[in-house]
């Protein structure tokens, strides 16, 4: 999985030559102290790198160009210690291609009541210096995250951490490749979309390989590699007696598929994939456990040719790196409409990532009513209770829309002895009827990425970086206001594309 400590956000402070060298030395010293403090904050998953104070148009433009070209740099944190005339920022902000966070802070937490004088006031001008900078960013219609508060405050650090995670996911998409084995599931609308526009907007490429290309690699996997995977299975899962005895061949075939898929992805430099059960000619069984385990390693995946969700799963896995809990391809499968206890049962035929499992998964083989293949091997498990989100990305024709529903997962209330799939139960917020109605009104897909460790705020920051529409369904959602929000968004994006 991605090592986020290999990524950097640059701490850039704005000032000007008006105040003299002594003041500028203090500005630099304060800025370096803040940057080092943020860099040492255990909560922030990436490096925070101090950069020299920018004091002119040339210096601003140079640092923005340098950030664009620096592979490790995933974004800039900007702060105006003094007044920094915003015209000097125009060219730099126009060319800046990395995400921007505006930290509205000041070096001192408190006003030194008995000692404050004009020298102090000239040095510590963030209260209005940041407003000058903020005007120019708004004037340029530039998306950015604004964080307000003292730099040592826990909430400020938490907001920077969340933005940095979103920036890591966005950075990972730039130049990424995702492969589709076969086409989209026939006649399905929401899982398809404009791959050219996606590459323009998101920075990743999606291309298709015929299933025969993959089958050739799978068939070339040697027995030693299969044996190694089987030992891993035995150590990691509770394997059913059927797979250890009469159906051991099914387990070997599942391992061979996993090894072949991994080899194909590694050799092609792919960060994720999709497939469809309608187009797996030459494969003995559907890749159930293979998709589950590859997702745990950090690959994006979605079924039925859904490349948008596969890419989103990958981004959310990068964003959640190092946090407790997991991220997985998911689908709203069926409902429980018991009055006062309404719930969604989320699952999929086979492919739910074991990173969200509650306890040791079972490894089993069972018939599958679709696909026309041999009985596939899969991991079966429940998912723990707790707060979570479902996120889905749709192509709305003139724009992409990211819709997020905050949910509350609940512990299984009954055994499901005849349902041999990974599954999770959740209650949509604000309630079942409102949450589901809002999702449908927003055109939300049936495929999502289910996350235990990310929040709606992470996804809002991510959508802001991608410059796409973001719609949240949460505790405060009111359907009347929500429908108005969708209408206003439609008007905005119609005007934007004129």
Structure description:
The strands form 4 sheets. A 6-stranded antiparallel barrel has the order 11-12-17-16-15-18. With 498 residues, the chain is α/β, with parallel strands linked by helices. Strand 11 and strand 12 form a beta hairpin. The protein is 40% helix and 22% strand. The protein contains 16 helices and 19 strands. The longest helix has 21 residues. It is elongated, with a radius of gyration of 25 Å. Helix 6 crosses helix 15 and helix 14 runs parallel beside helix 16.
How can the largest sheet be summarized?
A: 6 strands, antiparallel, barrel
Number of strands: 19
Rg from alpha-carbon coordinates: 25 Å
Report the oligomer. single chain
- The dominant shape is elongated
- Summarize the amount of helix as a percent range: 25-40%
Q: How many DSSP H or I helices?
A: 16
Summed over residues and divided by their number, the pLDDT gives a mean of 96
What separation lies between the terminal Cα atoms?
41 Å
Uncertain residue ranges: none
Structural class: alpha/beta
Please state roughly what percent of the residues sit in beta strands, choosing from under 5%, 5-15%, 15-25%, 25-35%, 35-45% or over 45%: 15-25%
Q: Please give the order of strands in the largest beta sheet.
A: 11-12-17-16-15-18
What topology does this entry show?
Elements (H helix, E strand, L loop, with lengths): L7 E7 L6 H20 L6 E4 L6 H13 L3 E8 L9 H6 L4 E5 L13 H6 L2 H14 L5 E4 L5 H20 L3 E5 L13 H8 L2 E5 L1 H9 L3 H14 L1 E2 L1 H4 L3 H21 L3 E4 L12 H10 L2 E4 L3 H13 L7 E10 L6 E5 L14 E4 L11 E4 L5 E10 L4 E11 L12 E6 L3 H10 L5 E5 L4 H11 L2 E5 L5 H18 L2
Parallel strand pairs: 1-2, 1-3, 3-4, 4-5, 6-7, 6-9, 8-13, 9-10, 16-19
Antiparallel strand pairs: 11-12, 11-18, 12-17, 13-14, 15-16, 15-18, 16-17
């Amino acid at each position: 999985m991605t090592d986020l400590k290999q990524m950097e956000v640059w701490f850039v402070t704005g000032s000007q030559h008006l105040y003299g060298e002594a003041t500028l030395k203090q500005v630099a010293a304060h800025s370096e102290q803040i940057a080092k403090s943020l860099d040492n904050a255990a909560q922030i998953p990436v490096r925070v790198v101090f950069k020299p104070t920018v004091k002119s148009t040339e210096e601003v433009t140079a640092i923005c160009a340098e950030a664009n070209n620096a592979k490790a740099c995933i974004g800039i944190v900007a702060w105006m210690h003094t007044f920094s005339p915003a015209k000097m920022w125009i060219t730099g902000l126009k060319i800046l291609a990395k995400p921007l966070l505006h930290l509205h802070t000041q070096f001192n937490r408190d006003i030194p009541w008995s000692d404050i004088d004009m020298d102090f006031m000239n040095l510590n001008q963030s209260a209005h210096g940041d407003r000058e900078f903020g005007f120019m960013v708004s004037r340029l219609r530039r998306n950015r995250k604004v964080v307000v508060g003292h730099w040592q405050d826990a909430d400020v650090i938490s907001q920077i951490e969340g933005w940095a995670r979103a920036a890591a996911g966005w950075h990972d998409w730039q130049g990424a490749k995702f492969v589709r084995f076969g086409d989209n599931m026939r006649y399905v609308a929401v899982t398809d979309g404009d791959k050219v526009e996606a590459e323009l907007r998101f920075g990743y490429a999606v291309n298709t390989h015929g299933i025969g290309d993959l089958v050739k690699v799978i068939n070339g996997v040697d027995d030693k590699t299969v044996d190694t995977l089987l030992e891993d299975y035995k150590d990691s899962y509770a394997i059913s007696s059927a797979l250890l005895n009469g159906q051991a061949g099914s387990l070997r075939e599942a391992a061979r598929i996993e090894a072949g898929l991994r080899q194909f992805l590694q050799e092609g430099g792919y960060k994720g994939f999709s497939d469809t059960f309608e187009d797996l000619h030459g494969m003995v069984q559907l890749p159930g456990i293979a998709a589950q385990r590859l997702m745990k390693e950090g690959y994006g995946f979605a079924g039925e040719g859904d490349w948008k969700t596969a890419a989103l799963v990958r981004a959310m896995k990068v964003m959640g790196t190092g946090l407790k809990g997991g991220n997985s391809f998911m689908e709203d499968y069926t409902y429980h409409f018991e009055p006062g206890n309404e719930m969604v049962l989320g699952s999929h035929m086979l492919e739910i990532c074991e990173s969200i499992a509650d306890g040791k998964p079972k490894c089993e083989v069972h018939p599958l009513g679709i696909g026309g293949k041999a009985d596939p091997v899969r991991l079966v498990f429940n998912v723990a209770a707790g707060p979570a989100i479902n996120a889905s990305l749709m192509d709305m024709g003139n724009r992409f829309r990211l819709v997020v529903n905050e949910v509350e997962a609940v512990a299984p209330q009954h055994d499901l002895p005849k349902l041999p799939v990974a599954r999770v139960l959740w209650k949509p917020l604000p309630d079942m009827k409102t949450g589901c109605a809002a999702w449908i009104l927003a055109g939300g897909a049936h495929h999502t990425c289910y996350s235990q460790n990310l929040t709606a705020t992470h996804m809002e920051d991510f959508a802001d970086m991608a410059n796409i529409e973001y719609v949240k369904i949460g505790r405060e959602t009111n359907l009347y206001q929500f429908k108005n929000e969708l209408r206003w968004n439609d008007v905005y994006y119609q005007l934007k594309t004129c």
